[in-house]
Amino acid sequence: MSCRTPSSSNSLHSQTVDPELEELTRLAEQLQVEEADLLAQERNITTQLVQNQTALVQLQTHLSNLQNARSVALSLPVSIATRIFVLSLELSLRGPYTSGNGRQKMKIPFEHSISHVSKKWREIALGTPSLWTWFNASVSGSADKLKAYLARSQDQLLALRLVSSQKATQDELVGVWRLLTPHAHRLRSLILDFSSASQLMVILSWMSVIPLPHLVHFAIECPNAYDDTLGSLQWSYVRSFAYFLRDAPSLQSLELNGILPQCIPWEIYPINKLRLRLPQNEFMLSLNLVLPSFASVTNLTLELYQALDGVSIVLPNLLVLKLVYNRPISNLSTDHSLFRAFSKLITPNVKFIDIRCQSGIHAANLFMLMSNSVSQNYHHLQFLSFSYEPSAFVEDRAPLAYREPGVLDVSNPFEYVEHLAFVNLVDTNALLAHVFLNPAYNVPRFPRLHTLTLEGKDLARDVTFDILTSRNTIGYEIAELRLSSEFADAEGNEECIEEWVELGFDIRIFDVQDFMHALDNGAN
What we know:
The protein is of the alpha/beta class and 524 residues long. The protein has 17 helices and 18 strands. The chain has 3 domains: 72-132, no CATH class; 134-287; 298-524. A 14-stranded parallel sheet has the order 1-2-3-4-7-8-9-11-13-14-15-16-17-18. It has a two-stranded antiparallel sheet with strand order 5-6. The N and C termini lie far apart (136 Å). 31% of the residues are buried.
């Protein structure tokens, strides 16, 4: 009888296949195969989904193209679309939400917006050189933009605002100038907005050696060009400026902020529009040495920190005069700032005067002082405006006081004014009462007044109505009263306006922002 040892028994057991384990192994292999099939199906479905989405986008694009092809706007002839684009650009540059050359307040330039509407419009925009003639360029980081505009504008005349900060390097300035030099003869308008006076001197010296035959408008924004430490202008700026002007025979409009060169024979240039912003310094060059040379100027804007002084300045051709006071006038009854401006600037043919000051009392003092003295008669003056821009000044803490004279019958200098405006002033009621309801005037102010435009935070209904009725009583009716939309929308005013209209008064409502924009453009 044979015997089996334990070891031999275990060996036999290990060689025996466990059915349960075999089944589990088979099932695992089957699941792996099924999982691989499912993954393959998922990949196929994903691929098909992507293909379907692509096809859908293509169909939608094709449908949009078909719809656009039927669109009136997109089906316009190229010549008409081009004309619309150019006119729209011009309107966007002159709108009430722009300033300077129209670019400062525009987040996206019009020509960029219009070129991203459709493929056809982009082709039209890129193929219209006049759409790419107005642009801002920074000395730092605008080389590619400058190249694009110079190329797309082709041979059109250019309007450029060149901006340079204190961080701009000399190499960047050289690079920009090298791009501009071949196109300098195309410059129609050039604004240099520089923070660095030394860089301004460099650019002016470069400009002095190239001809600018088509340059019509030139502006410098560089208050630092005035050296407050030395108390005088750096003559290197002025000399460079003078040399540059020799090769700008078409120059008609000049704007200077911080530079007032007096050594140039301005008579040789046909300048008809001049804007000067004078630095606040007692050593500034006198206007008396500069303005008489601008005999042909018809539009003059002076932004003043202090009163005009010296001998009278005769500007026989001036038609539009704007006086901007960059800070509140502390005491008009003593320093006579406005009065000096009117007495020193002799403008016999002026038709439009716009004064930017803060308080209605300023205007009241002006009327009082001019009525108490023998002053020039403005026989051609039709529009007179006193307005205030809140962002430009710091408000007075208290209203100024003016002295009421006994009799104001020496002169009535504004008797030919037909359109009068008091907009955004402080103490509007006091001004209106002084001008229209003051018994000290033997002869009514503004006897030919046709249109009166009013807006003020303190404008009262009773004062306004008293003016209308009192003028009617004495036979000097105001044909048209223009009131702001803010006044009309105030509580209780709408009913009053309706009553005034029923009484026969012609009341018009205006928008203050549109009015201020019109003033900036010299329109009434």
